C-alpha cells in the first residue's frame, strides 16, 4: 500500500466524519428553532381555542379559515414546516 492510497483512505474517513459532524450540528441548531416555532404556533392555537370556547366551534373554524386558509397552511407546512406558518402569521401581524 502506497502513501497516496493511505492518505486517500484517510481523506474518505475524515470526509465522512465531517459530513456526520456537520449534519449533527445542523440538527442541534434546527431543534431549538423548531421548538420556538411550535411554541409560537401554540399561541395562535390558544387564541383560536379562546374563540371556540367563547363563540363556538363554527366561529373558530371560520376565523381560522379567514386568517390562515387550509390550502395556504398546507403549502407553508410543505416548505419549511411550522416555521413557515409562523413567519406568515408574523407577516400578517397575527403573532408578536
From TrEMBL:
<feature type="signal peptide">
    <location>
        <begin position="1"/>
        <end position="26"/>
    </location>
</feature>
<keyword id="KW-0732">Signal</keyword>
<protein>
    <submittedName>
        <fullName>Uncharacterized protein</fullName>
    </submittedName>
</protein>
Amino acid at each position: 500500500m502506497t502513501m497516496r492510497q493511505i492518505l486517500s483512505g484517510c481523506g474518505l474517513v475524515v470526509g465522512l466524519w465531517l459530513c456526520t459532524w456537520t449534519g449533527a450540528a445542523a440538527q442541534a441548531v434546527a431543534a431549538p428553532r423548531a421548538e420556538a416555532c411550535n411554541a409560537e404556533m401554540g399561541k395562535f392555537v390558544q387564541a383560536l381555542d379562546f374563540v371556540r370556547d367563547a363563540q363556538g366551534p363554527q366561529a373558530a373554524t371560520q376565523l381560522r379559515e379567514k386568517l390562515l386558509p387550509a390550502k395556504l397552511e398546507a403549502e407553508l407546512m410543505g416548505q419549511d414546516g411550522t416555521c413557515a406558518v409562523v413567519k406568515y402569521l408574523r407577516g400578517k401581524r397575527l403573532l408578536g
